[in-house]
Amino acid sequence: TAAPVFREFLTQYIEKFPDTTRKFSVPNGVYRGNYKGESAYYTTKSPLPKANMKFNESEIIF
């Protein structure tokens, strides 16, 4: 995955620009909800999954 490369980039970026804002401001139209006991963000176009959603392990979910 790209995660290790991104981590290295971000670490070096913060070292070079220590005053960079690190807080995430939620844009308009993005809401905060709870999914499986955890806080999650969602939109009207991409809602949180329904808790009773059933799926077949062999199928792909998009």
What key attributes describe this structure?
alpha+beta; two-stranded antiparallel sheet; 1 helix; 2 strands; about 25% helix
Could you describe the largest sheet, including whether it forms a barrel? 2 strands, antiparallel
How confident is the prediction overall: mean pLDDT? 86
Number of helices: 1
**Percent in helix:** 10-25%
Q: Whole-number radius of gyration?
A: 17 Å
Strands, total number: 2
Structural class: alpha+beta
Spell the H/E element sequence. Answer: HEE
Structural summary, described in words:
The protein is built from 1 helix and 2 strands, in the order αββ. The chain is α+β, with helices and mostly antiparallel strands and 62 residues long. It has a domain of 40 residues. Strands 1-2 form a two-stranded antiparallel sheet. The chain is flat, with a radius of gyration of 17 Å. The model has no long low-confidence stretch (mean pLDDT 86).
Short summary:
The chain has 62 residues and is α+β, with helices and mostly antiparallel strands.
List the helices and strands and how they pair.
Layout: H1 3-16, E1 31-35, E2 38-42
